Amino acid sequence: MFHFNCDTCDFSRDIDYLPREYVFDDGRRMHMLQRHIWCAQCNTVTVAEAFREDSESREWRLERREQHRRELERNDFKHDFERDLRRKWIADSEEYDRNLTEWQSLRTRPQFCLKCGNEDIIVPEKNWSDLAHPVCGGTLKCTATIIFGTFIGPEPHKYTSDGKLIELGYRQGPFEGDQRKQLELWWPNDT
């Protein structure tokens, strides 16, 4: 959950990134990177696709991949599943790089607000960056709450490479009667 508070006026907003992914023509799926933005049409903080990983996230992922390779070379695991997890993590990370490169080559539409489709947006350079507040000239300070735990996550919304919604996601049960519930396309009670 990201929290935004203006240092000049009383603007305050909390947002969360809902799970979204791209589906390639051959059925492969890739997690949609998202970034908080200011949308001129919505006149608030909202979310857009991020076209690239921010440098810190990419650097962390590449360092982690090399660390796993070194651990595999040492081969001093107590359990086979530890070795298997590292191999899978490396393979998934390499596949993600290939998919991201392919997606970037397919993309034709510019970045836009995922809520209204507007392209008149202010995008911060980094994932956790503050934003300029065009309404009052202040700065929207960005903080985040990170929750750790194990849970069954929702099935993400699915999009084409150009960001067109093709299928709504869903949440897993238990719910009364049905074990699946449609995932909201936007945050509940958002105007």
N-to-C series of helices and strands: EEEEEEHHEEEEEEE
Global geometry: globular
- pLDDT average, as an integer? 86
Count of separate structural domains? 2
Spans of at least 5 consecutive residues with low confidence? none
Estimate the strand proportion: 25-35%
Description:
- The protein has 191 residues and is of the alpha+beta class.
- It folds into two domains: 1-51 and 111-191, no CATH class; 52-106.
- The protein contains two helices and 13 strands; from the N terminus they run E-E-E-E-E-E-H-H-E-E-E-E-E-E-E.
- It has helices at residues 55-74, 80-106, and strands at residues 2-6, 12-15, 20-23, 29-31, 34-39, 44-49, 121-122, 131-132, 139-144, 157-159, 165-167, 170-172, 180-182.
- The strands form four sheets. The chain has a four-stranded antiparallel β-sheet, with no helix packed on it.
- Helix 1 packs antiparallel against helix 2.
- It is globular, with a radius of gyration of 19 Å.
- 12% of the residues are buried.
